């Protein structure tokens, strides 16, 4: 039994935009946490900054992958 799914172009655009919005919110939360952590322990600034940049890069990578998948659905 074959199931055929018809992908509507609008759904891909909605998915790509939700990925961008989610990444913005996620990176904002990472920055907020880093600033609060640095305020509590200024001597750990370098460690916190390195961890923050790594986490932001991972969030951005996943968001980019989701946005590309959404746009591929649009132009399919």
From TrEMBL:
<keyword id="KW-1003">Cell membrane</keyword>
<comment type="function">
    <text>F(1)F(0) ATP synthase produces ATP from ADP in the presence of a proton or sodium gradient. F-type ATPases consist of two structural domains, F(1) containing the extramembraneous catalytic core and F(0) containing the membrane proton channel, linked together by a central stalk and a peripheral stalk. During catalysis, ATP synthesis in the catalytic domain of F(1) is coupled via a rotary mechanism of the central stalk subunits to proton translocation.</text>
</comment>
<keyword id="KW-0375">Hydrogen ion transport</keyword>
<feature type="transmembrane region" description="Helical">
    <location>
        <begin position="52"/>
        <end position="75"/>
    </location>
</feature>
<keyword id="KW-0446">Lipid-binding</keyword>
<keyword id="KW-0406">Ion transport</keyword>
<feature type="transmembrane region" description="Helical">
    <location>
        <begin position="12"/>
        <end position="31"/>
    </location>
</feature>
<keyword id="KW-0812">Transmembrane</keyword>
<feature type="site" description="Reversibly protonated during proton transport">
    <location>
        <position position="60"/>
    </location>
</feature>
<protein>
    <recommendedName>
        <fullName>ATP synthase subunit c</fullName>
    </recommendedName>
</protein>
<dbReference type="InterPro" id="IPR035921">
    <property type="entry name" value="F/V-ATP_Csub_sf"/>
</dbReference>
<comment type="similarity">
    <text>Belongs to the ATPase C chain family.</text>
</comment>
<dbReference type="InterPro" id="IPR020537">
    <property type="entry name" value="ATP_synth_F0_csu_DDCD_BS"/>
</dbReference>
<keyword id="KW-0813">Transport</keyword>
<keyword id="KW-0472">Membrane</keyword>
<dbReference type="InterPro" id="IPR000454">
    <property type="entry name" value="ATP_synth_F0_csu"/>
</dbReference>
<comment type="function">
    <text>Key component of the F(0) channel; it plays a direct role in translocation across the membrane. A homomeric c-ring of between 10-14 subunits forms the central stalk rotor element with the F(1) delta and epsilon subunits.</text>
</comment>
<dbReference type="InterPro" id="IPR002379">
    <property type="entry name" value="ATPase_proteolipid_c-like_dom"/>
</dbReference>
<dbReference type="InterPro" id="IPR038662">
    <property type="entry name" value="ATP_synth_F0_csu_sf"/>
</dbReference>
<keyword id="KW-0138">CF(0)</keyword>
<dbReference type="Pfam" id="PF00137">
    <property type="entry name" value="ATP-synt_C"/>
</dbReference>
<keyword id="KW-0066">ATP synthesis</keyword>
<feature type="domain" description="V-ATPase proteolipid subunit C-like">
    <location>
        <begin position="13"/>
        <end position="72"/>
    </location>
</feature>
<dbReference type="InterPro" id="IPR005953">
    <property type="entry name" value="ATP_synth_csu_bac/chlpt"/>
</dbReference>
<keyword id="KW-1133">Transmembrane helix</keyword>
């Amino acid at each position: 039994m074959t199931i055929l799914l018809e992908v509507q172009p609008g759904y891909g655009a909605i998915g790509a935009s939700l990925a961008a919005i989610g990444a913005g919110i996620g990176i904002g939360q990472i920055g907020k946490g880093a600033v609060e952590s640095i305020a509590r322990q200024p001597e750990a600034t370098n460690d916190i900054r390195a961890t923050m940049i790594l986490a932001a890069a991972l969030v951005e990578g996943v968001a980019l992958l989701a946005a590309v998948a959404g746009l591929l659905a649009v132009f399919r």
